[in-house]
Amino acid sequence: MPSPRTVTSGPELHSPKEPVEPQLPAEGPLRANRGDAAGVYHEDSRPGLGTLRRAFSRASQRASGRAPEDPGLLRRSSRFLFRSLRRTLDNGPAAVPGATNGQEVPSRALDHVSRRTSTGAGPEELEGKSVADLITERQLLAAFEQLRHLETRLVAEKASRTFEQDPTGFARRAMDVCLHYDALASEIDAIVNETLGPDGVDAAALAELAGVVRAEEEAHPEPPEDGDFLRTPRHWRQHWEDAVRRSAQERVRSAGPGEAPGAAEGGSALAQVLTELGSLVRRDLQKVQLEAHPVYAAAGFPAWETYLRAFHGAVAQRLQELAHNARGCEQLYVLLDWAANVYGSPDFLGAQNLALSSEPLPPLLAPDVWARLESEYTNFLETKIASCFDGILQLEQSRWADAEAPDVLQGRYHTPLSIDVHMLVAEHVKAAGAISKELEATTLQICARALGLFLPRFEKAFLESKAVNEPHLGANINACEELRTGLLARFPGSFKELEKPLVAATCDFQNWLLRGLQGEVQPLFRVLCTKAWLTQDVLRPLMDKVVAFAGHLEHVASPWAQETLQEVHRYVVREYLAHVLGRRERFRGAERLTGSQKMGQDAQAISDTFQGLGSEATWLGQAIPCVADILGETYKDDIQRHLETLIRSYPDIRRDHVLAILSLRRLGRRRNQRLLQHAQDLLRAAAKAGGPRAAGGHVLFEEIEVPTSVDVLITCI
């Protein structure tokens, strides 16, 4: 607290809205007040100011280490004093003879009145104590009552024109009153600062604080009409609220390091700062609610709401500073998560009886700051998620390079790909959803976009590796199916566009699976419709490979396993017919009948095998038997009936296929032409009915290429 000489001689700060008052000339009695060498008396010779100086010294020792006191009160008091003194000088004589000799009577009289007033205004033990001593002992109500008595007496003496001949004396006594009022205000600051200190709450001091604030409000309800500064309201309630706000700011700034952690420290250092900050705020507010609030509430003070708003504002300011320096995905998320989930949690204060303010608090972070943090977070998140997918691909490649066979979990080939992607998406979406729905939606879009870019890279890397075999292909089919069903079921809106890429990747893996089998069994079809075929079971090796292949399909997801099995079934029937219709040699006589029987046996073997494997492609069962019947039919008129059955069952058959089938035996030119014409009529009728689509979209003959041969040409003629 500045001494009187500092107050009177230092420069005065003015608000831009207030006119600058001219300073008094530094001569006459005020010079003695400032301790000028030319004056007769020093401040220690004035009991009022000397005692006040000692009180201020003791108060400053108690308040050491706290924030500097608000100089506004003393400046306002000085400003009011100079204005009143100016009016006094304007109404009275400009100077009093002998005043420069340093009249100390007013100051001594003030101190004497303080002691005398204490006898009647307070208990007996307060007799003989000055106002400064009462302030030092924190008997604030008693000190205020004495000051109020002195103020009333001084106002009365001014009204009675007692100081017409001695305006400097009035100024001295008025200054003493103002300084004592400022000392009371400073003690309010000290009590507020000590409330949250380590020594606990002084209930008696808080009661004195609340009482003196209310007493001052009752004593000075409104500014006086004549502008007398002595009776002007001191606004100590506002001063108390400002002190609470400053105290909260100091407490919040003391949590964690003074500067925000750098980007190199990651989110752990920032998380530690926020943890300390949360613990301090929680501890201080609990102390206010449980210890300070009951004392304030008895005096009608809204302490809880005031402290809550003060700490909220201090935390918001600290968070703004941390947000300015936050860098990296981890730091940004820690900051957003703490603001949204830790501080914004109903359980933040740690006790049910700590109710929040009935009025909504302002946002902890300004909307533009929050939007900036979310934008920066999503930018970093996009890079991070892409990096995570790179890591997943590297893990898969390491397993391929080590020639590790995929595990079989719950009867299916398994690769960690699906679990890794599901965990990656779920982790980031859950974290973002805990902050805001908007951030969750943005994170979903980022994950979907990153997965869409990852799929072709993953597929290309796998197909270029040495791990392209049935188990790995089955594991990848299962992974894509799990991603398609799992992600679409959980996030239908965001991952809907990924359904086609996932299905396309699955189809690619399925095609590679089929091509592997086709490459193995293709040479086995070459012995069909040969002389050896009539006497040997050449179909068994082929079906053995099909059965072995189907063993892998047992570990593939059911929809794709069934579809692949049906495709294998269709491939075997199609290739069988392709070799039968494409052969250049024709059987005659007994060989033709034997070949027909052999084809019937092969058709039954194929049907039984695939039926045992679980194939649901029953529509393929008529193809080979119909051709076998045409080949072995002895009653030529019934050939038309077999041909009709074939065309009705397979509307995708073409004229070339009919010619190739008729060329399997000698029927004569006229019969062939008649059968061919009848077949064309049936094909046109089938085309009008919808073609292959009318038969359920099944395609068999359409994919069979029939080579042009002399026999076919002769049949046409």
Account of the 3D structure:
Strand 1 (407-409) and strand 2 form a beta hairpin. The protein has 717 residues and is mainly α. The protein is built from 27 helices and two strands. It folds into four domains: 70-94 and 101-247, no CATH class; 257-365; 381-512, Tetracycline Repressor, domain 2 (Orthogonal Bundle), CATH 1.10.357; 548-716, Tetracycline Repressor, domain 2, CATH 1.10.357. The protein starts with a helix and ends with a helix. It is 66% helix and 1% strand. Helix 13 (328-342) packs across helix 14 (367-401) and helix 14 (367-401) runs antiparallel to helix 15 (417-435).
Compute the number of strand runs. 2
Strand content: under 5%
Write down the Rg. 50 Å
> Helical stretch count?
27
* Average residue pLDDT: 78
- Give the end-to-end Cα distance, rounded to a whole number of Å: 126 Å
Query: What is the helical fraction, as a range of percent?
Result: 55-70%
Q: What can be said about the biggest beta sheet?
A: 2 strands, antiparallel
Task: Supply the helix-strand structural class.
Answer: mainly alpha
Shape designation: rod-shaped
Order of helices and strands: HHHHHHHHHHHHHHEEHHHHHHHHHHHHH
How many domains? The number is: 4
Return residue spans where pLDDT drops below 50 for at least 5 consecutive residues: 1-126
